[in-house]
Amino acid sequence: MTELLETVEHETGPHPQWSVLWLHGLGADGHDFAPIVPELLRRDWPAVRFVFPHAPVRAVTINGGARMRAWYDIRDMNLANRADSEGVAESVAQVEALIAREAERGIGAERLLLAGFSQGGAVTLAAGIARTRPLAGLVALSTYLPMTPAQAQAALQPAATAQPVFMAHGQYDPVVPCAGGEMSAAALRQFGCDVQWQRYPMQHSVCAEEIGDLGDWLGARFAAG
User: Fold this and answer.
1) pLDDT digits over 1-19, tens only?
2) Does the annotation mark 118 as catalytic?
3) Strand, helix or coil at 142?
4) Which of 81, 103, 129, 172 has the fewest CB within 10 Å, making it most exposed?
5) Does an H or E element contain 114, and which?
6) Residue 76 appears among annotated catalytic residues
7) How crowded is residue 183: how many other Cβ atoms within 10 Å of its Cβ?
8) How confident is the model over 74-104, as pLDDT tens digits?
9) Which is the catalytic residue, given 29, 73, 84, 173?
């Protein structure tokens, strides 16, 4: 059995009926995006449990082998060869274990959204396309599909295309080029996914306008459910 990752959790009300599982970026931890919750919240939302897991600590090649929290090893900056596929697969399994725990706590896949930033967003997309039971939605910020289009097509499960996707990126991102995110969004659309793609005048970060747009998108998912 896959060992459960440690998490930071925030419930917006008693007896939450929805969960948002949010994966941080390289070198950060589960505390990184916890402060975003009050900025996202809307008065008409149901009670939501936000779950922010800590990635395992591992050596990262691109950073001279230094050990830090990472969802997978980064071998070089070229997106086509950046992600360590074994590490991605391990992280997808850990995400699936957290999704299963939410089901045990009464929140099934149809009321769970998987989100991530940068590395966390890459794992979100990798986990999302392999889902045989659709989640309520996928959120991928400043990120990319961590595999070739052919590998993504091979991993794609027919039911996964039912998951709506919110993707957003900074136009001036020096870490994950915006073009890489845009190509991944286009690939997901080609697979049949409903993708909302947004660009913002920023680098590898998040901005207030992005949080506002994401809040609108999440609100629509809650209303639809």
Assistant:
1) 788 999 999 999 999 999 9
2) yes
3) coil
4) 81
5) strand 112-117
6) no
7) 15
8) 988 888 778 899 999 999 999 999 999 999 9
9) 173
